[in-house]
Design brief:
The chain has two helices and nine strands; from the N terminus they run H-H-E-E-E-E-E-E-E-E-E. The strands form three sheets. The protein has a four-stranded antiparallel beta sheet. Strands 1-2-5 form a three-stranded antiparallel beta sheet, with no helix packed on it. The chain has a two-stranded antiparallel sheet with strand order 6-9. Helix 1 runs antiparallel to helix 2. The radius of gyration is 20 Å and the shape is elongated.
């Protein structure tokens, strides 16, 4: 899914293409090709970051109302990844954090701290990994369904 910046860049690329077609200007075609290549690099690097990822979750059996619950998430990537945003929690209390770099074959453990605002049992939703790639024009997401519950 394109970000706001990515959407604007695609609109500008389309407008430059129409202008280059009307004027038959080679330099405008080159500029348009550079803009499209930038979008393609962003798409490839974002897709590469979310592929080959494995995720496990460690949750405590109980939480206290109004206190953060320490949810541990272990992420590993076969080929490495950069600029991943990891989100986890339950409906109404999702927490997220940035993982700047994940080396190939090495696992990284992060802590997320969603806070229950009331008592009861909470079913954790899927762990969501998002990447904008190296350019930041497209966002690709991947969900991992790991059923867990906190009382």
């Amino acid at each position: 899914m394109p970000t706001r910046e990515g959407t604007v860049l695609l609109i500008v690329a389309a407008a430059i293409f129409l202008l280059a077609t009307n004027l038959m200007s080679g330099l405008l075609f080159v500029l348009d090709a550079l803009l499209v290549a930038l979008v393609l690099v962003g798409a490839v690097t974002a897709a590469r970051s979310v592929r080959g990822i494995t995720v496990t979750r460690q949750v405590p059996p109980r939480g206290v109302e109004g206190q953060p619950v320490h949810v541990g998430i272990t992420i590993s990537a076969a080929r490495g990844a950069r600029f991943l945003v990891v989100e986890d929690g339950w409906t109404g209390a999702r927490a997220r954090t940035l993982v700047p770099a994940l080396e190939a074959g090495r696992a990284a453990t992060i802590q997320l701290h969603p806070t229950p605002e009331r008592r009861g049992q909470f079913v954790l939703g899927p762990v969501e990994i998002a990447s904008r790639g190296l350019v930041g024009l497209l966002t690709l997401r991947r969900r991992f369904v790991l059923p867990d519950r906190i009382a």
